[in-house]
Write a structure and sequence with these properties.
Strand 1 and strand 2 form a beta hairpin. The chain is mainly beta. It starts with a helix and ends in an 8-residue tail after the last strand. It is built from 4 helices and 32 strands. The strands form 3 sheets. It has a 19-stranded mixed beta sheet that branches. The protein is elongated, with a radius of gyration of 23 Å.
Length: 415
């Protein structure tokens, strides 16, 4: 026992030294774990907010990713500002990596400094298993320079399919067992965090902030991914707080404060006739403040596949437009083609214990495809009143299901 206590004390002493710049340390005892610490300052990073630290981070990552052990700590110093251009952290790595962001990371503050403007993401984590990022640091995408340059870019949003402004701030692709905790994201050029083709992610205690007017700055975007937990986050942004895209399943979301923004959405799904498969989604105990939508499912006409086994429960609404919204005629353009040959099938969707105020007269909209009806839609214990002292109502198109104890009543639901 005494030997174990001595090892523990030694580890925390050395880790503390590493966080003030004493860098690459490997530590183990005969029976305990092997710990490695890599500090970006030891690889040439300056951290003055002016010098380009991209190559120093890449050099530090190569060292960290190649170390064998039980865990590698990748240290980003507090009271430092690290300027990074587009950067990709490639795996697989020899050990799980724990990135501790104590300081601030900023993107270039001019389009010219980015160089190649075709990047889809600012920071990419690719093919890494067991990546953890935390530390209460700040990740500032300085996105306003991109928001002002919409016409100069031709990137395409994979969820909505229309031109966009610039790179996502942080992206994970082909990763497993991702953990993000206690991070502060500011002003991304496009979306704050995206997770694609991954298995296992846990996002907690994250603050994501961008102005309400910032275009397409979704908080968290998920697609082609399974087994995701998102809890206790505060999201204020210019688009969806959380958007769950195609081929996603087993997603649990709770205790999210969303607003401003466009709400919490499933979709958009089925763009350009694509096949979507989304199921086993739970959204619980969330608060939406002044958002354009509340809880929403949005699909394009002409899509295929399904969105099913979806639960929205314990939702609080404060002056929200379109509080409950199924939109199978989603169209972010001035006009869209009227495609009736196919549709994403929406079924087994429950809205339970949802209360608050609506800024729109139609508080519940269930606009389902005329080609393929929504089925088994359930509303129970709904109490939505007007934020503007008007009567609120509901509207349905080809929606089938049940309603119990709902204000406004949903008499338009078909059996």
């Amino acid at each position: 026992m005494g030997h174990a206590m001595q090892f523990s004390a030694t580890f925390f002493l050395i880790l503390g030294m590493a966080t003030i710049g004493l860098g690459k340390i490997g530590l183990s005892d005969d029976n305990g774990p092997t710990i490695n610490v890599v500090n970006v300052l030891d690889f040439g990073a300056i951290g003055d907010g002016k010098a380009d630290d991209t190559q120093a981070f890449l050099n530090a990552w190569k060292e960290a990713c190649g170390k064998k052990g039980d865990i590698v700590y990748f240290i980003i110093e507090k009271e430092k500002i690290f300027l990074l251009k587009a950067i990709r952290f490639d795996g697989p790595c020899q050990s799980p990596i724990h990135i501790q962001v104590f300081g601030t990371i900023i993107a270039p503050n001019s389009i010219e400094e980015w160089g190649d403007q075709s990047h889809d993401s600012w920071m990419v984590f690719f093919n890494i298993n067991g990546i953890k990022i935390d530390g209460n640091g700040i990740i500032d995408g300085q996105g306003s320079i991109w928001w002002q340059q919409v016409s100069k870019n031709h990137l395409v949003d994979p969820l909505d399919g229309y031109g966009n402004q610039g790179p996502d701030a942080m992206s994970f692709s082909l990763c497993g067992n991702i953990t993000l905790d206690r991070l502060n994201f500011l002003n991304p050029p496009r979306r704050h965090v995206t997770i694609t083709n991954c298995i296992g992610a846990n996002l907690t205690n994250i603050q994501l902030t961008a102005p309400e007017s910032s275009p397409n700055t979704d908080g968290i975007g998920i697609s082609f991914t399974t087994n995701v937990q998102i809890h206790n986050c505060n999201i204020q942004t210019g688009d969806d707080c959380i958007a769950i895209g195609s081929n996603s399943s087993q997603i649990k979301i709770s205790n999210i404060a969303c607003g401003p923004g466009h709400g919490i959405s499933i979709g958009s799904l089925g763009n350009k006739g694509q096949t979507a498969q989304v199921e086993e989604i739970e959204v619980r105990d969330c608060t939406l403040n002044g958002t354009q939508n509340g809880v929403r499912i949005k699909t394009w006409q002409g899509g295929k596949g399904f969105a099913r086994k979806i639960l929205f429960a314990g939702i609080t609404l404060n002056a929200v437009r379109n509080p409950i919204f199924i939109d199978q005629f989603y169209c972010p353009h001035a006009t869209c083609s009227n495609i009736t040959e196919s549709a994403v099938e929406v079924s087994d969707v429950a809205f339970m214990t949802i209360s608050g105020t609506s800024t729109s007269e139609t508080a519940i909209i269930l606009n389902c495809s005329e080609t393929l009806a929504c089925t088994n839609i359930s509303l129970k214990d709904i109490y939505i009143t007007s934020a503007n002292l008007i009567n609120v109502s509901s509207q349905c198109t080809n929606a089938h299901g049940t309603s119990e104890n709902s204000v406004p009543p949903v008499d338009c639901l078909q059996k």
